[in-house]
Amino acid sequence: MENLENKTALITGGSRGIGFGIAESLIKQQANVAVTARTKASADIAAQTLNQLKKGQAIGIEADVRSADSQRKAVQQVLDKWGKLDLLVANAGVGHFGSVDKLTEEQWRETIDTNLTGVFYSIKASVEALRVSKGYIITIASLAGTNFFAGGAAYNASKFGLVGFTQAVMLDLRNDGIKVTTIMPGSVATNFSSGPGFGDSWKIQPEDLGQMVVDLLKMNPRTLPSKIEVRPSIAGKG
Predict the structure, then answer these.
(1) Which residues are annotated as catalytic?
(2) In a domain, 238, yes or no
């Protein structure tokens, strides 16, 4: 994909944060991008902002990764709009943190269903279209997928699982011409928890991860960086 013009991407959870940063970077390369969010309003606002760049096209799709049917419908909307799918970025994620004795059953289910099962649903819905296009799957994991911490029982479980799942999928699909990579960021300035603030300049920025996705897509196809750890270049402050 040395030239990303008219390539087509579906980004789950693409209305803000990392997902939006990736969408913006792809649009600037004149790709076409569908961003999903749980509400149509959020998805449409993100798409409108992307279209103001007057590069590639963007559409917003209301979809919930916790529903396999919702993911199938999202992929079909992309195919109906552009006739193909070249890239899936499985980015949608949530985080509930706290000691395991305080963690509720609902928080556990939402974390696992979104961060792990949701990626399974997204990939299952996309794989046939990506097989046709010889496309790419990128999952957004976390350094929490290898580094456990107190209060991270649900989040660690989801991200450890996502890293292992993605690597197995990579082996399943690479002989079909589908490339698969998981990106594992450390601290990112996003809306994930309390939102970016004045003291977040030391963190990875969403556009940095967007540039990484562009670089992966433009890499010589004989080479596959299957798992990438990325962290701020300086230690955290505070």
Answers:
(1) 155
(2) no
Nearest residue to 86 via CA among 165, 179, 19: 179
Count structural domains, the chain: 1
Yes or no: say if 14 and 35 are a contact pair by the CB < 8 Å rule.
Answer: yes
- Residue 41 pairs in a beta bridge with none
Per-residue three-class SS string for 145-210:
HCCCCCCCHHHHHHHHHHHHHHHHHHHHHHHHCCEEEEEEECCECCCCCCCCCHHHCCCECHHHHH
pLDDT digits (tens, 9 = 90+) for 77-111: 999 999 999 999 999 999 999 999 999 999 999 99
Quick one: average pLDDT of 194-215? Answer: 81
- Domain containing residue 173: CATH number: 3.40.50.720
| pLDDT tens for each residue of 144-191 | 999 999 999 999 999 999 999 999 999 999 999 999 999 999 888 875
